[in-house]
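Today's session is about reading a structure prediction critically. Students often jump straight to the picture, but the first step is always the sequence itself: look for stretches that repeat, for charged clusters, for runs of hydrophobic residues. Only then move on to the predicted structure, which in these notes is written as discrete structure tokens rather than atom positions. Here is the chain we will use throughout the hour.
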Amino acid sequence: MILPRTRLWLLMSILLAAWGLPHALAQDSPFGCTKYVNVETGSGRNATLERPANDLGNIVSRLEPGDVVCIAEGIYTGRGDSGSDNIEIPVVILGGFNQDFTVRSPWRDHLTIFTGLHNSDNFVTTYRLSIDTSKFATPLMEVRGEPTEHTVMVDGLIIDNGPRNYYRDETESAIVRMGTPSDTPTPESGGLVISTGINSTVVVQNVIVVNTAPTQGAFTFFPGRAADVTIRNNVAVNNTGAGFHLGKSFSGDTSEEFPNYAFENNISVFNEKHDPFGTFGGSGIILESETNVTITNSIFALNDNYGVDNAKRAADVVMTDNLIFGNATADYLEFDLKIDLEDIEDEADYMYDAFDNSGELHTFGVSEGWAARYSAREIIDRNAAEADVEVVDAWYNDLRSILGLNLIGTDLDVDSEVWLPRMSLEDVFAVALLYSDQYGVHIP
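Below is the predicted structure for this chain, in token form.
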């Protein structure tokens, strides 16, 4: 069951959101900014209001624990166009500012877009933004009596891997995962990953991740012991793997040690399998064991496999007032049991409570062009395909049989002309507008 202190954190987090950021971090800026980044006017690495930095990646080495980094509207491609930023201390990242940092409107007027440049000289394929505080707050520090409590927040970013991906041709209808001597591969990583040490508080809100091709999550979380994690008002759309991956960075013995997740008002749709012939990926959200998770007012729809993947059996899951429909394999997976939405409350052993979830169909206002490309994908049933293959009579199949491997056949087409077709930001916001008083996100 979700612990009482988590409910207290939920109340606290609502108040903190109203302030805009953790109150203890507030400085002279009305938004608490201690560092400033502006791709249009930035010069040097002072990161002051008068002389902002040009890119977050340029000041990573100068960040200090507790910094509040405010980022103006614009397109950011990382230090040296690497397309990746990696931070190893607790910070707050706030996007969506106007040019003089007096107004925030992260999804309407002042878009802060994190991306990269495929084939740039410094291109790397790691997560677009990674924050890892596991070395900042360790159990040894706790034993020594050193402070380990820390906060990580990311708010108001749009992470779009479209410009980072390697596409088959100029139509950008299908990604190519493997690189060539002249083309770097499509990054097999998501948009945002956060790992923390012990005694952490994590808040991720008003973030969009689109066009990423990971094996895990477009959003991925590995919090430390007894972490409080709030994930609210985010959108994961058109990614492989899972929209959200809720994990942990340790193994605990009691539920008091498990991370506590409050997952509310998020959208996770159009998430694809890793590849057309694959069997993994394509879920709205993946839960790991030894986590406590409450999921409310969120949308999991039109994913290639599952709406909610709890194959690893999170400890106690609460799901209320969510919209779950159109997922190809099942609405909910628990270990290897596929469960329809209406049966979750009765049949899910690891569900502490589930009620008022809806399977009502909704439409998305995406463009006709993208919808046509996406629906043209050929999703291959691997078991059925392999059953129809005529096995080759050859020595290597004799060897594979002895070793217990699948035999190789002929005439098996495992390709699709369309896979992870690039989605425009206009279509992303058409998805985000699927909001009612009960489900989905608010436009910040």
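Discussion point for the tutorial: Residues 151 and 201 are 5 Å apart (CA to CA).
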